[in-house]
């Protein structure tokens, strides 16, 4: 819960009572192993799932079993807060690593929206930022070069992890195999390997699985055409 509080607090101040209200709507945490589906496509969950530790991913599947990852979920993310109003899920969420999660019953979220208007707006903003992330991923898929796409992903993950205290000075853990990165980027594993090697040769990153260290932020951001505005990292009253 602390990661979620830090993330929301980065955008607007949370009162002590609001922090307590957030803690009151989640059930005790539990561990989910890598590969487990946290949310199943087509289901109608009666709760939303908060990711406390680990990496998860939203995905959509085709009839032939093909999978497209549409967003990475990090610590502090409600991976399906939108299921509260969406009801039936048109996508799934899978644990990419061992994860710690906590669920929040929709009945408890409904009570929160009725009694905590400011907190409700902050959670609404969180779902709006999810949509902004999706727009950036679509832009990367359609218009950025493969190298720019990878660079943008690294910039985004670094900034999002910084907010919850899991990245510092451009260094963070990204414990995802290249097969998963290939799914994220829509590329082959061989192509991903070449892109990582290219960033190393350029001395933009030092990448020793799972540790990523960004050595030249300005150059990486230039490659990515990265503008963090869509992540809403500066505090503004909502």
How would you characterize this protein structure?
The chain has 238 residues and is α+β, with helices and mostly antiparallel strands. It folds into two domains: 123 residues, Jelly Rolls; 89 residues, Winged helix-like DNA-binding domain superfamily/Winged helix DNA-binding domain (Arc Repressor Mutant, subunit A). Helix content is 45%, strand content 21%. It contains nine helices and eleven strands. The strands form three sheets. It has a four-stranded antiparallel sheet with strand order 2-6-4-5. It has a four-stranded antiparallel sheet with strand order 8-9-11-10. A hairpin with a 2-residue loop joins β10 and β11. α6 crosses α9 and α7 crosses α8. The longest helix has 26 residues. It is globular, with a radius of gyration of 18 Å. The mean pLDDT is 94.
Give keywords.
single chain, 238 residues, alpha+beta, Jelly Rolls, 4-stranded antiparallel β-sheet, 9 helices, 11 strands
- Taking pLDDT < 50 over at least 5 consecutive residues as the criterion, the unreliable ranges are none
Helix vs. strand class: alpha+beta
Report the C-alpha radius of gyration, rounded: 18 Å
Name of the CATH first level of the largest domain? Mainly Beta
* Count of strand segments: 11
Q: What is the helix fraction of residues, given as a range?
A: 40-55%
Sequence of strands across the biggest β-sheet: 2-6-4-5
Question: How many discrete structural domains?
Answer: 2
The CATH topology of the largest domain is given as Jelly Rolls
| Ends apart, CA distance between termini | 21 Å
Give the CA-based shape.
globular
- What's the architecture of the largest domain in CATH terms? Sandwich
Mean of all residue-level pLDDT scores: 94
Beta-strand percentage range: 15-25%
